[in-house]
Amino acid sequence: MALFSKKLSQKTDPTPLDGVDVLLADLDGIVYAGPGAVPHAIESLNRAAAEGRRLGYITNNASRTDASVAAHLADLGLGTRAEDVVTSPQAAVRLLADRVPEGSRILVVGGEGLVVELEKAGYTVTRSAQDAPAAVVQGFNPDVAWTDLAEAAFALATPEDEGGIPWIATNTDWTIPREHGIAPGNGTLVSAVHTAVGRLAVVAGKPEAPIFHAAVARFGAAKPLMLGDRLDTDIQGAQAAGMDSAIVLTGIDRPKHVLAAPTHARPTYILGDLREMFEPYPAVTRRGEVTTVGDARVRVGAGPEVEILSEGSRDIDLLRAGAHAIWATGRQIFGFDVPERLYRDTFHRP
Protein backbone atom coordinates (compact mmCIF):
# COMPACT_ATOMS: atom_id res chain seq x y z
CA MET A 1 0.00 0.00 0.00
CA ALA A 2 2.85 2.39 0.82
CA LEU A 3 4.45 1.75 -2.56
CA PHE A 4 1.10 2.34 -4.29
CA SER A 5 0.58 5.62 -2.44
CA LYS A 6 4.06 6.78 -3.32
CA LYS A 7 3.44 6.03 -6.99
CA LEU A 8 0.24 8.05 -6.94
CA SER A 9 2.06 11.02 -5.44
CA GLN A 10 4.72 11.16 -8.12
CA LYS A 11 4.45 14.28 -10.25
CA THR A 12 4.25 14.18 -14.03
CA ASP A 13 5.70 17.04 -16.04
CA PRO A 14 2.94 19.12 -17.67
CA THR A 15 2.41 18.94 -21.42
CA PRO A 16 2.68 22.03 -23.63
CA LEU A 17 -1.12 21.93 -23.97
CA ASP A 18 -1.94 22.03 -20.27
CA GLY A 19 -4.18 25.03 -19.60
CA VAL A 20 -4.25 26.09 -23.28
CA ASP A 21 -7.70 27.14 -24.49
CA VAL A 22 -6.80 28.27 -28.03
CA LEU A 23 -4.20 26.63 -30.22
CA LEU A 24 -2.90 28.99 -32.91
CA ALA A 25 -1.01 27.36 -35.76
CA ASP A 26 1.04 28.62 -38.65
CA LEU A 27 0.26 26.82 -41.91
CA ASP A 28 3.28 26.35 -44.19
CA GLY A 29 5.65 23.94 -42.46
CA ILE A 30 3.25 23.18 -39.59
CA VAL A 31 0.04 21.89 -41.19
CA TYR A 32 1.14 21.44 -44.79
CA ALA A 33 4.10 21.80 -47.16
CA GLY A 34 2.75 22.54 -50.62
CA PRO A 35 -0.59 20.76 -51.10
CA GLY A 36 0.17 17.84 -48.79
CA ALA A 37 -0.14 17.57 -45.02
CA VAL A 38 2.89 17.51 -42.73
CA PRO A 39 3.17 14.04 -41.13
CA HIS A 40 1.23 13.74 -37.84
CA ALA A 41 -0.19 17.27 -38.13
CA ILE A 42 -3.82 16.54 -38.99
CA GLU A 43 -4.39 13.83 -36.39
CA SER A 44 -2.64 15.90 -33.72
CA LEU A 45 -4.68 19.03 -34.40
CA ASN A 46 -7.92 17.04 -34.52
CA ARG A 47 -7.02 15.44 -31.21
CA ALA A 48 -6.43 18.88 -29.66
CA ALA A 49 -9.83 20.01 -30.91
CA ALA A 50 -11.52 16.84 -29.64
CA GLU A 51 -10.08 17.58 -26.21
CA GLY A 52 -11.89 20.92 -26.17
CA ARG A 53 -9.36 23.44 -27.51
CA ARG A 54 -10.27 26.02 -30.14
CA LEU A 55 -8.11 25.86 -33.26
CA GLY A 56 -7.11 28.99 -35.15
CA TYR A 57 -4.68 29.49 -37.99
CA ILE A 58 -2.41 32.48 -38.55
CA THR A 59 -0.79 32.78 -41.94
CA ASN A 60 1.52 35.28 -43.60
CA ASN A 61 0.75 33.80 -47.01
CA ALA A 62 -1.23 36.48 -48.83
CA SER A 63 -1.85 34.57 -52.04
CA ARG A 64 -5.12 32.93 -50.95
CA THR A 65 -8.33 33.97 -49.23
CA ASP A 66 -9.36 32.80 -45.78
CA ALA A 67 -12.09 30.74 -47.44
CA SER A 68 -9.68 28.98 -49.81
CA VAL A 69 -7.28 28.26 -46.94
CA ALA A 70 -10.14 26.83 -44.90
CA ALA A 71 -11.21 24.66 -47.84
CA HIS A 72 -7.67 23.33 -48.21
CA LEU A 73 -7.52 22.49 -44.51
CA ALA A 74 -10.92 20.81 -44.71
CA ASP A 75 -9.70 18.70 -47.64
CA LEU A 76 -6.75 17.62 -45.50
CA GLY A 77 -9.14 16.45 -42.77
CA LEU A 78 -9.55 19.47 -40.48
CA GLY A 79 -12.96 20.94 -39.69
CA THR A 80 -11.91 24.47 -40.56
CA ARG A 81 -14.12 27.45 -41.48
CA ALA A 82 -13.07 30.77 -43.00
CA GLU A 83 -13.49 32.53 -39.67
CA ASP A 84 -10.87 30.20 -38.16
CA VAL A 85 -8.19 31.69 -40.43
CA VAL A 86 -6.41 34.98 -39.68
CA THR A 87 -4.45 36.21 -42.70
CA SER A 88 -1.80 38.84 -43.24
CA PRO A 89 -4.01 40.58 -45.85
CA GLN A 90 -6.60 41.07 -43.12
CA ALA A 91 -3.91 42.60 -40.89
CA ALA A 92 -2.71 44.76 -43.81
CA VAL A 93 -6.21 46.14 -44.39
CA ARG A 94 -6.44 47.06 -40.69
CA LEU A 95 -3.23 49.06 -41.04
CA LEU A 96 -4.39 50.60 -44.30
CA ALA A 97 -7.63 51.83 -42.71
CA ASP A 98 -5.56 54.03 -40.37
CA ARG A 99 -3.77 55.66 -43.30
CA VAL A 100 -6.08 55.77 -46.33
CA PRO A 101 -9.82 56.57 -46.56
CA GLU A 102 -12.29 53.87 -47.56
CA GLY A 103 -12.96 53.89 -51.30
CA SER A 104 -9.41 54.89 -52.24
CA ARG A 105 -7.59 53.26 -55.15
CA ILE A 106 -4.88 50.83 -53.97
CA LEU A 107 -2.08 49.38 -56.11
CA VAL A 108 -1.83 45.67 -55.32
CA VAL A 109 1.21 43.48 -55.79
CA GLY A 110 -0.07 40.02 -54.96
CA GLY A 111 -2.96 37.66 -55.50
CA GLU A 112 -6.56 36.96 -54.69
CA GLY A 113 -6.06 36.96 -50.93
CA LEU A 114 -5.17 40.64 -50.99
CA VAL A 115 -7.69 41.69 -53.60
CA VAL A 116 -10.65 40.10 -51.80
CA GLU A 117 -9.79 41.67 -48.43
CA LEU A 118 -9.30 45.12 -49.96
CA GLU A 119 -12.56 44.96 -51.87
CA LYS A 120 -14.42 43.73 -48.78
CA ALA A 121 -13.12 46.84 -46.99
CA GLY A 122 -14.42 49.11 -49.75
CA TYR A 123 -11.19 49.87 -51.62
CA THR A 124 -10.69 49.90 -55.40
CA VAL A 125 -7.85 47.78 -56.74
CA THR A 126 -5.44 48.71 -59.51
CA ARG A 127 -2.27 47.16 -60.91
CA SER A 128 -0.90 50.35 -62.50
CA ALA A 129 1.03 53.26 -61.00
CA GLN A 130 -0.49 55.48 -63.70
CA ASP A 131 -3.86 55.23 -61.89
CA ALA A 132 -2.47 57.45 -59.09
CA PRO A 133 -3.03 54.97 -56.26
CA ALA A 134 -3.37 56.20 -52.67
CA ALA A 135 -1.17 53.36 -51.36
CA VAL A 136 0.70 50.20 -52.36
CA VAL A 137 -0.08 46.92 -50.61
CA GLN A 138 2.27 44.04 -51.39
CA GLY A 139 1.85 40.35 -50.61
CA PHE A 140 3.10 36.99 -51.83
CA ASN A 141 1.74 35.33 -54.94
CA PRO A 142 3.69 32.80 -57.03
CA ASP A 143 2.62 34.66 -60.18
CA VAL A 144 4.09 38.04 -59.18
CA ALA A 145 6.21 39.25 -62.10
CA TRP A 146 8.93 41.82 -62.65
CA THR A 147 6.34 44.12 -64.17
CA ASP A 148 4.32 44.04 -60.91
CA LEU A 149 7.39 44.98 -58.89
CA ALA A 150 8.20 47.73 -61.36
CA GLU A 151 4.72 49.26 -61.02
CA ALA A 152 5.14 49.30 -57.24
CA ALA A 153 8.52 51.00 -57.59
CA PHE A 154 7.06 53.64 -59.91
CA ALA A 155 4.26 54.39 -57.43
CA LEU A 156 6.64 54.54 -54.48
CA ALA A 157 9.32 56.73 -56.04
CA THR A 158 8.64 59.61 -53.64
CA PRO A 159 9.40 58.94 -49.94
CA GLU A 160 6.35 59.08 -47.68
CA ASP A 161 7.83 61.86 -45.53
CA GLU A 162 8.14 63.94 -48.71
CA GLY A 163 4.51 63.46 -49.71
CA GLY A 164 4.70 59.95 -51.14
CA ILE A 165 2.05 57.29 -50.62
CA PRO A 166 2.07 54.58 -47.92
CA TRP A 167 3.56 51.15 -48.63
CA ILE A 168 2.30 48.19 -46.62
CA ALA A 169 3.72 44.67 -46.94
CA THR A 170 1.69 41.75 -45.67
CA ASN A 171 4.87 40.05 -44.48
CA THR A 172 8.60 39.79 -45.11
CA ASP A 173 9.24 36.03 -44.86
CA TRP A 174 12.44 35.42 -46.80
CA THR A 175 11.51 31.85 -47.69
CA ILE A 176 8.45 29.64 -48.05
CA PRO A 177 8.40 25.80 -47.85
CA ARG A 178 7.01 24.07 -50.92
CA GLU A 179 6.57 20.41 -51.75
CA HIS A 180 9.87 20.34 -53.69
CA GLY A 181 11.91 22.34 -51.16
CA ILE A 182 12.46 25.88 -49.91
CA ALA A 183 11.53 28.75 -52.23
CA PRO A 184 11.88 32.56 -52.06
CA GLY A 185 9.14 34.21 -50.01
CA ASN A 186 7.52 37.64 -49.97
CA GLY A 187 10.49 39.18 -48.21
CA THR A 188 12.62 38.70 -51.32
CA LEU A 189 10.00 40.48 -53.45
CA VAL A 190 9.62 43.34 -50.96
CA SER A 191 13.40 43.63 -50.87
CA ALA A 192 13.51 43.99 -54.64
CA VAL A 193 11.17 47.00 -54.48
CA HIS A 194 13.10 48.41 -51.51
CA THR A 195 16.32 48.20 -53.50
CA ALA A 196 14.71 50.15 -56.32
CA VAL A 197 13.09 52.92 -54.25
CA GLY A 198 15.29 53.13 -51.13
CA ARG A 199 12.43 53.11 -48.63
CA LEU A 200 10.95 50.57 -46.21
CA ALA A 201 7.48 49.06 -46.08
CA VAL A 202 5.28 48.94 -43.01
CA VAL A 203 4.79 45.24 -42.22
CA ALA A 204 1.35 43.93 -41.22
CA GLY A 205 1.89 40.24 -40.52
CA LYS A 206 4.22 38.17 -38.40
CA PRO A 207 6.45 38.95 -36.56
CA GLU A 208 4.51 42.11 -35.80
CA ALA A 209 2.15 41.82 -32.82
CA PRO A 210 -1.11 43.15 -34.37
CA ILE A 211 -1.91 39.95 -36.28
CA PHE A 212 -1.54 37.99 -33.02
CA HIS A 213 -3.68 40.47 -31.10
CA ALA A 214 -6.35 40.17 -33.80
CA ALA A 215 -6.34 36.38 -33.40
CA VAL A 216 -6.61 36.56 -29.61
CA ALA A 217 -9.54 38.96 -29.89
CA ARG A 218 -11.32 36.90 -32.56
CA PHE A 219 -11.06 33.62 -30.66
CA GLY A 220 -11.42 35.04 -27.15
CA ALA A 221 -8.20 33.38 -26.04
CA ALA A 222 -7.22 33.46 -22.37
CA LYS A 223 -4.14 31.20 -22.68
CA PRO A 224 -3.17 30.71 -26.34
CA LEU A 225 -0.23 28.67 -27.63
CA MET A 226 1.36 29.54 -30.98
CA LEU A 227 2.78 26.71 -33.11
CA GLY A 228 5.34 27.83 -35.67
CA ASP A 229 8.24 26.63 -37.77
CA ARG A 230 10.09 29.96 -37.96
CA LEU A 231 11.82 31.72 -35.11
CA ASP A 232 11.95 35.10 -36.86
CA THR A 233 8.21 35.28 -37.58
CA ASP A 234 6.08 32.83 -35.59
CA ILE A 235 8.10 32.72 -32.38
CA GLN A 236 9.30 36.32 -32.37
CA GLY A 237 5.77 37.53 -33.06
CA ALA A 238 4.24 35.37 -30.33
CA GLN A 239 6.78 36.67 -27.84
CA ALA A 240 6.05 40.26 -28.91
CA ALA A 241 2.35 39.59 -28.31
CA GLY A 242 3.00 38.07 -24.89
CA MET A 243 1.97 34.49 -25.62
CA ASP A 244 3.63 31.10 -25.23
CA SER A 245 5.01 29.44 -28.36
CA ALA A 246 6.44 26.19 -29.66
CA ILE A 247 8.96 25.85 -32.47
CA VAL A 248 8.12 22.69 -34.42
CA LEU A 249 10.92 21.14 -36.47
CA THR A 250 8.79 20.19 -39.49
CA GLY A 251 9.37 23.36 -41.51
CA ILE A 252 11.99 26.03 -42.13
CA ASP A 253 14.09 26.38 -38.98
CA ARG A 254 16.36 23.54 -37.99
CA PRO A 255 18.21 22.55 -34.77
CA LYS A 256 21.16 24.85 -35.51
CA HIS A 257 18.76 27.80 -35.75
CA VAL A 258 17.21 26.90 -32.41
CA LEU A 259 20.62 26.84 -30.72
CA ALA A 260 21.35 30.30 -32.15
CA ALA A 261 17.93 31.83 -31.35
CA PRO A 262 18.22 35.44 -30.13
CA THR A 263 16.53 36.43 -26.89
CA HIS A 264 13.53 38.00 -28.64
CA ALA A 265 12.81 34.82 -30.67
CA ARG A 266 13.15 31.98 -28.17
CA PRO A 267 10.23 29.55 -27.89
CA THR A 268 8.60 28.27 -24.73
CA TYR A 269 8.76 24.73 -26.13
CA ILE A 270 10.88 22.86 -28.70
CA LEU A 271 8.98 20.07 -30.50
CA GLY A 272 10.05 17.53 -33.10
CA ASP A 273 6.51 17.25 -34.46
CA LEU A 274 2.98 17.96 -33.25
CA ARG A 275 2.58 14.62 -31.47
CA GLU A 276 4.87 15.96 -28.77
CA MET A 277 2.25 18.56 -27.76
CA PHE A 278 0.56 15.79 -25.79
CA GLU A 279 3.69 14.42 -24.11
CA PRO A 280 4.93 15.55 -20.70
CA TYR A 281 7.49 18.26 -21.37
CA PRO A 282 10.59 17.57 -19.28
CA ALA A 283 11.71 20.30 -16.93
CA VAL A 284 14.89 22.20 -17.74
CA THR A 285 17.19 22.14 -14.73
CA ARG A 286 20.53 23.86 -14.23
CA ARG A 287 23.16 22.96 -11.66
CA GLY A 288 26.26 25.05 -11.97
CA GLU A 289 27.45 24.83 -15.58
CA VAL A 290 25.30 21.78 -16.42
CA THR A 291 21.84 21.90 -18.02
CA THR A 292 19.70 18.76 -17.87
CA VAL A 293 16.57 17.89 -19.84
CA GLY A 294 15.32 14.35 -19.35
CA ASP A 295 18.46 12.19 -19.42
CA ALA A 296 20.41 14.57 -21.70
CA ARG A 297 23.05 16.79 -20.09
CA VAL A 298 25.08 19.62 -21.62
CA ARG A 299 27.77 21.72 -19.96
CA VAL A 300 28.80 25.24 -20.96
CA GLY A 301 31.44 26.99 -18.89
CA ALA A 302 33.10 30.38 -19.15
CA GLY A 303 35.07 29.33 -22.23
CA PRO A 304 33.90 28.54 -25.76
CA GLU A 305 33.45 24.79 -25.31
CA VAL A 306 29.96 23.26 -25.37
CA GLU A 307 30.30 19.75 -23.94
CA ILE A 308 27.77 16.93 -24.20
CA LEU A 309 27.95 15.00 -20.92
CA SER A 310 25.09 12.66 -21.85
CA GLU A 311 23.33 12.36 -25.22
CA GLY A 312 20.35 10.84 -23.47
CA SER A 313 17.76 8.63 -25.07
CA ARG A 314 15.98 11.28 -27.20
CA ASP A 315 17.47 13.66 -29.74
CA ILE A 316 14.82 16.27 -28.94
CA ASP A 317 15.85 16.37 -25.26
CA LEU A 318 19.49 16.76 -26.23
CA LEU A 319 18.57 19.72 -28.44
CA ARG A 320 16.49 21.23 -25.64
CA ALA A 321 19.36 20.85 -23.17
CA GLY A 322 21.87 22.35 -25.61
CA ALA A 323 19.63 25.28 -26.47
CA HIS A 324 18.88 26.20 -22.87
CA ALA A 325 22.54 25.77 -21.90
CA ILE A 326 23.66 28.19 -24.61
CA TRP A 327 20.78 30.64 -24.06
CA ALA A 328 21.53 30.84 -20.32
CA THR A 329 25.00 32.24 -20.97
CA GLY A 330 23.72 35.40 -22.63
CA ARG A 331 26.43 35.02 -25.27
CA GLN A 332 26.14 34.85 -29.05
CA ILE A 333 26.34 31.45 -30.76
CA PHE A 334 29.38 32.39 -32.85
CA GLY A 335 31.42 32.55 -29.64
CA PHE A 336 30.99 28.82 -28.99
CA ASP A 337 32.60 25.64 -30.22
CA VAL A 338 29.43 23.56 -30.67
CA PRO A 339 29.81 19.81 -31.29
CA GLU A 340 28.12 18.72 -34.48
CA ARG A 341 26.17 16.04 -32.62
CA LEU A 342 24.23 18.76 -30.82
CA TYR A 343 22.69 20.14 -34.01
CA ARG A 344 22.51 16.93 -36.01
CA ASP A 345 19.20 17.11 -37.84
CA THR A 346 17.30 13.88 -37.29
CA PHE A 347 13.89 15.55 -37.41
CA HIS A 348 11.47 15.05 -40.29
CA ARG A 349 10.79 17.83 -42.75
CA PRO A 350 8.66 17.15 -45.86
Describe this structure in words.
- The longest helix has 15 residues, at 315-329.
- This protein starts with a helix and ends in a 21-residue tail after the last helix.
- The strands form five sheets. It has a six-stranded parallel β-sheet. A five-stranded parallel β-sheet has the order 7-6-8-9-12, sandwiched between helices.
- The protein has helices at residues 2-9, 41-50, 66-76, 88-97, 112-120, 146-155, 186-197, 210-219, 231-240, 255-259, 315-329, and strands at 22-25, 32-33, 36-37, 54-59, 85-87, 105-109, 124-126, 135-138, 167-169, 175-178, 181-184, 202-203, 224-228, 244-248, 269-271, 284-287, 290-293, 296-300, 306-310.
- The protein has three domains: 22-60 and 207-277, Rossmann fold, CATH 3.40.50; 89-203, 3-Layer(aba) Sandwich (Rossmann fold), CATH 3.40.50.1000; 282-343, no CATH class.
- It is built from eleven helices and 19 strands.
- Helix 6 (146-155) packs across helix 7.
- Helix 5 (112-120) links the parallel strand 6 (105-109) and strand 7 (124-126).
- With 350 residues, it is α/β, with parallel strands linked by helices.
Please give a quick description of this structure:
By secondary structure, this protein is an alpha/beta fold.
How many helix segments?
Answer: 11
- Range of helix content: 25-40%
Taken as a percent bin, the fraction of beta residues is 15-25%
The coarse silhouette is globular
Q: Which class best fits the helix and strand makeup?
A: alpha/beta
Radius of gyration: 22 Å
The whole-number mean of residue pLDDT values reads 93
- CATH topology category name of the largest domain: Rossmann fold
Poorly predicted residue ranges: 1-9
Q: Look at the structure and give the CATH class of the largest domain.
A: Alpha Beta
End-to-end CA span? 50 Å
Total strand segments:
19
| CATH superfamily caption of the largest domain | HAD superfamily/HAD-like
